[in-house]
Amino acid sequence: MAGRTDPRVSRTTEALTSAIVELAGERPVSRVTVAELAERAGVTRATFYNRYASPLDLLVQVLYGDLELGHAREGELRAEGGHTAAELLRMSVAEVAEHVERFRPIYQHALNDPADHGVYAALVRHFIDYALDFMQRSTHPDAPRANHGIVASFVAHGFAGAIEAWLADDDATRDDLVDAAVACAPVWWS
C-alpha cells in the first residue's frame, strides 16, 4: 500500500484546485480570501493552511502543474524522434499558448491588476527553470557560454512579455503568439 494516496487527500486537492481556478477566474487572486476559498472547496481554513501559504501559492501550484504536463508531452515527442527542432519549438510554444488559453481569465486579471504580479512572476520563474534545464541538456554548438541564469532570465522575461502583449491585444491570435515566439527564439534553441 506504500505510495498510494489517500482518496480523501486527492478529493481535497481536487476541490481546492477547482475552487481557486473558479475564484481566480472571477476576479484577481489577490482579492480571493482563504475563507471563501475554503468554503467553495468545502474544507476548513486549517486544511488550506496545512497545505498552502496563500491563495496565490495554490494558484501557482495549479498553473505550474498544468505547464509541466505540456513539458512532459514535449519530452515524449523528443523521445519519439521524427520531429525537427523547429517543429518541437513550435509545438512547445503552442502548448504554452493552450495553457494560457485554458486559464485566460486568470492571466487577464493578473494583467490588469498590479497586485496580481505574482501570477506573472511565477510564469517567469517557470520559464527560467525550463530554460536552465534546456541549456543544461543542449548540445547545440552555438549554445550560450554566458551566465546561464542571466540568459534564462532574459529568455523567460521575453516570453512572458510576449504572452502579456498577446493577451492585451484582442486581435492577436494564438498563431500570432506562436509565430512571434518562434521568430524570436535564439538559434541555439534546438
Would you kindly provide a written description of the structure presented here, covering whatever features stand out?
The protein has 190 residues and is mainly α. It has a domain at 55-184: Tetracycline Repressor, domain 2 (Orthogonal Bundle), CATH 1.10.357. The protein is 74% helix and 0% strand. It contains 9 helices and no strands. The longest helix is centred in the middle third of the chain and has 26 residues, at 55-80.
Q: What is the strand tally?
A: 0
What value does the average pLDDT take? 91
Report the C-alpha radius of gyration, rounded. Answer: 18 Å
Strand content: under 5%
Structural class: mainly alpha
The dominant shape is: globular
Number of helical segments?
9
What is the helix fraction of residues, given as a range? over 70%
| Largest sheet, strands/sense/barrel | none
Q: What are the segments in which pLDDT stays under 50 over at least 5 consecutive residues?
A: none
Termini distance? Answer: 42 Å
Write down the secondary-structure element order: HHHHHHHHH
Properties at a glance:
190 residues, mainly alpha, Tetracycline Repressor, domain 2
In short:
With 190 residues, the chain is mostly helical.
Q: Topology of this protein?
A:
Elements: H1 7-26, H2 34-41, H3 45-51, H4 55-80, H5 85-102, H6 104-112, H7 117-137, H8 148-168, H9 174-184
